[in-house]
Amino acid sequence: KLFNGLREFGATTPLELPDWAKAAQTLLGFGTSANDVLPILKDIGNISMGDAQKMESLTLAFSQATSAGKLQGQDLLQMINAGFNPLNEMTKITGKSMGELKDEMSKGQISAKMLRDAFAHAAGEGGQFNGMLDKMSKTLQGAKSNLDDAVETMFSDIGEKLEPATLTAIDAAQGLVEH
Q1: CA of 32: how far to CAs of 23, 38, 64, 66, 99, in Å?
Q2: What is the distance between the alpha carbons of residues 156 and 114, in angstroms, rounded to a whole number?
Q3: Fewest beta carbons less than 10 Å away: which of 9, 13, 103, 146?
Q4: What is the pTM of this model?
Q5: Which of 50, 5, 17, 24 is nearest to 149 (CA)?
Q6: What is the model's pLDDT at position 146?
Q7: Residue 44: count of CB within 10 angstroms of its CB
Q8: In the beta sheet, which residues pair with residue 70?
Q9: Which of 157, 149, 115 lies closest to 19, judged by CA?
Q10: Measured between alpha carbons, how far is 128 from 113 in angstroms, rounded to an integer?
């Protein structure tokens, strides 16, 4: 189910399947539940606006923070460098000032749930990054990426269908070499 979701993201967004797979592997490696990976990646993908490098940075920083259970300064800086300040979203959600949130962060009080909510808010309906993957997929670069993924999927499907015959041929060749 996860792989099929990643494949669909690759086919319909400016990011390609290997980008999605690498990000999913990062989230899973830091302990994110497989059921949570696709919704999180969709939000991170929208926030990255289809930029693979930004998505990789945001995914790593998000994973580190959620694994630690709280947002820390270094993770915040990584996110800001990738173009997203979750504290800005938290000001909108909580009504607290940036100063208050920074103070809470220094005390370890910005939880992983608050961080997840900030990402969901930014990428959700009415959010600054809502629908960004869809918009970017309609650009020339996005259309090319979608074509690349369609070709890769086609070759993968062909490979899956030919795999039994290929394995039989390899086994036969190995037998010939051994004898």
Answers
A1: 11, 11, 11, 8, 30
A2: 39
A3: 103
A4: 0.74
A5: 17
A6: 46
A7: 26
A8: 111
A9: 149
A10: 20
**Sign of the Cα pseudo-torsion (18, 20, 22, 24, in order):** negative
Q: What sign has the CA pseudo-torsion 133, 135, 141, 145?
A: positive
Tokens for 52, please give them: 């693979």
Residue with tokens 């800086």: 77
Per-residue confidence of the chain (179 residues) as pLDDT tens digits? Answer: 888 888 887 777 888 888 999 999 999 999 999 999 999 999 999 999 989 999 999 999 999 999 999 999 999 999 999 999 999 999 999 999 999 999 999 999 999 999 999 999 999 999 999 988 877 666 545 454 445 555 565 555 566 666 676 667 677 778 778 88
Helix (H) or strand (E) holding 6: helix 2-12
pLDDT at 134: 78
SS3 call for 43: helix
Contact 13, 23 (CB under 8 A): no
CA pair distance 68, 108, nearest whole angstrom: 10
